[in-house]
Structure formats: structure tokens, C-alpha cells
Design goal:
Elements (H helix, E strand, L loop, with lengths): L3 E6 L5 E9 L2 E7 L5 E3 L2 E2 L9 H13 L11 H10 L6 H17 L5 H9 L2 E3 L2 E3 L4 H14 L10 H8 L7 H12 L9 H10 L8 H19 L3 H15 L13 H4 L19
Antiparallel strand pairs: 1-2, 2-3, 4-5, 6-7
Length: 289
Amino acid sequence: MFHEMNIMHTSSEQFMQHVISLHNGTPVSLFLPDPAESVVPGVAWGRFEEALTPAFWAAQAWMQELAGGEAFGLGDTLAEEVAACLLGGYGAPAEVGLAAYGRVRQAMRSTAVVDVGAIEAMLTMPLNVGDRLVRYRFARQRSRQLGECLARIADIDEAALDDISLRDALTRLPGIGPKTASWVVRNRRASDEVAILDIHIVRACVHMGIFGGGATPASDYVGLESRFIGFCRAAGLRASLLDALMWRTMRSIGPSFAGLRPASNPSSTGGRGKGKTACPEVVARAGTI
């Protein structure tokens, strides 16, 4: 958690933000640039205690690293990871996707070949999600896609491919777009070369001014991904960790974040006590793009 913020003078008349947290009972510090300084052209760092600014994300990512970072991966093999990410794709809430994947994974581990019919039967049966039974919305479509993916996955020489090449190879499988493929690569390799640009990440980046208001990964995935990764590198953040952190945070606060002033608004860094501030304590992914 945040315990204190100090604004420190430097000889250049700028200010350094001083973030203090506890790690194993010992105070530790992070220094961030002046709130008005640009992290990338046109985007100011903002104040770290103000929700959803670049400085906020930098401080949260730092604390997440102190806490042990992120654990990626839903499966033990490439085939299992593809199954997890495909079933958790567009239109499937994370909890429903994980429940469907758990059922299919059990069959994958006990049967040499899982065919389309078997997958569809498993996805058609109601799933236990929390304390209720729910139906998987895309049982027929996803079973066909997953069946073909599993039949072709052996054609991908994972060890011979770098992160981007592996992502490209995965996008040639049915139902796997760049977002789902990036999710697989991130989970398999904790890769910082790809980004999983779902609606939560896009909203966070639009809020900061990293993306324009009309950003649509479906039409410009690579371009938006390049901006996101460029921002991460400029801020000294791991793209894989920030992506996961943004996803959890934006998902937990939902559309209410729209009431917060955009971080790119100059007034968000100019005054004390203006705008909403974040709760200092911030709380595995669901589309086919």
C-alpha cells in the first residue's frame, strides 16, 4: 500500500514523486518523474495517487513486482494453452471460460484424441461457475475451432519460433486472432513483446491518451500494440505485468472509471485535491480479435 508521497525539488525546478511502500516490513522507495513531465510525447506522467495516470500504473506495477510479480499460464502444453485462451475468448466471461477449459483439459489429459463431437458435448453441458450453473454460449462454434486447432497444433514448432513468429503461427489456426494468440504467447513465455489488447486495456490506454478515443484493435492491432509496448518501455515497465495488472484493475472498477478525468488532461497534474484518487491497493483473460 501507499504510506506516503513526498514531492521533492530538483535543481531543474522540476519535482520528483516519492512513492513509499512496505516490503517484508521494511520501507522501500520508488522515485517517479515530475507529474507534468512527458512519459511519451503528449502524455504526462501525472500524479501516482490519481487513478489511472501513467504514474499510478508505474507505482502499482512496482508494488506488484515487490509482491512477487505475476504468474502466467493456464496449461502445461501449447495445446492446453490454446484451449484455455480460445475457450476464454470473445463473449465468454473469464470465469465461464475457465470452467469450460477445466472440463476440456481433463479430457485432453485422459484421452489421446479429443474430437469435435466430444468437445461439443462437454461445452453443451451446463458449467459450475461459483454457486450457479451456466451455459457456454458458443459451444458449437468453439468446439469446431478447438477441434481443428488440436489437430493442427503439432505442426507448430514452438521451440524454433521467437515470440512474434509464434504469435503469427497461432493466428493461422481457426478462431485465433492476434489478441488470443498474444494471450497464448504471453502465458507460455511471460513475453513482453506482445500485448493482449482487450477492452479493459484499450480503455485504460484511451484514458491515459496512449490510444485515441476511436482505438479499435480489430482494425489496427499491431499499431496499437506498438504504442502500448512503446509506452511500457518508456515508463520502464514490463508489458506482460502491466497488461495483467490493467486487466484486473479495469475489470474490477468497470465502466465507473469513465467518471475520472483523463490523465492526459493538463489539469489532472496541475492542482492538489482535484479529481478522483485511486484506492492504493489494486485487486487469466477473456475475444477473438
